């Protein structure tokens, strides 16, 4: 009895134009979430991306799926930047400062409000992206701490809370207007993180667990 030859399953890969459309949708959604918040209508996102509404819904079944993709794409790009900085070596505190300014340009602070109670924070894609960036940033901080450049009483949560707050547009202000001050204020914060510490910090350090606690 002859054994049947296994049938090779044909893997259908997205066309190049379909991938470009998806990338345009995610880029447009990122811009509009920053400008107007997560409730911006899909048809406005489609118009900004230069595609039809059907193309948006074909790629993303609902708002959560699109928002999750935006957050994951921003987080992944930032992780890739940190990986490159770690591989390059060099001045540890300069690498940490570079991450903070890169994260600001990626609008992490403006996107943080999207991670609200209605957002599935335990989705595998989001958890994987979050765990990856956490490990990498802690490595950056560890290098700076070992080099004696980072004050020892600062933890991951302290850094991320500050980055989120200092890059988030103030209520009633235009996102474009706040851009003039973001990097200036971040640099002031970074100077305060340098060792030796000039003051004793009140309270306790914010940990990774604190960041993930609802």
From TrEMBL:
Domain of life from the UniProt record: Bacteria
All residue ranges annotated as the HTH tetR-type domain in the record: 19-78
Entry keywords, A to Z: DNA-binding, Transcription, Transcription regulation
Residues within the DNA-binding region(s): 41-60
Signal peptide: none
The UniProt record lists the keyword DNA-binding: yes
Name by which UniProt lists this protein: TetR/AcrR family transcriptional regulator
């Amino acid at each position: 009895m002859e054994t049947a030859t296994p049938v090779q399953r044909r893997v259908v890969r997205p066309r190049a134009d379909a991938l470009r459309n998806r990338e345009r949708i995610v880029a447009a959604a990122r811009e509009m979430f920053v400008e107007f918040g997560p409730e911006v209508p899909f048809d406005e996102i489609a118009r900004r991306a230069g595609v039809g509404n059907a193309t948006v819904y074909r790629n993303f079944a609902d708002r959560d799926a699109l928002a999750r993709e935006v957050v994951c794409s921003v987080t992944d790009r930032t992780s890739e930047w940190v990986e490159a900085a770690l591989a390059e070596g060099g001045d540890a505190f300069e690498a940490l400062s570079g991450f903070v300014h890169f994260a600001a340009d990626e609008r992490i602070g403006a996107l943080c409000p999207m991670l609200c109670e209605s957002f599935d924070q335990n989705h595998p894609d989001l958890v994987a992206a979050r765990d990856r960036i956490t490990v990498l940033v802690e490595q950056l901080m560890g290098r700076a701490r070992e080099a004696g450049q980072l004050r020892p009483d600062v933890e991951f949560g302290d850094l991320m809370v500050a980055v989120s707050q200092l890059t988030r547009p103030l209520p009633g202000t235009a996102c474009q207007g706040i851009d003039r001050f973001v990097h200036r204020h971040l640099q002031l914060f970074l100077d305060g993180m340098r060792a030796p510490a000039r003051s004793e910090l009140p309270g306790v350090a914010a940990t990774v667990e604190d960041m993930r606690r609802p």
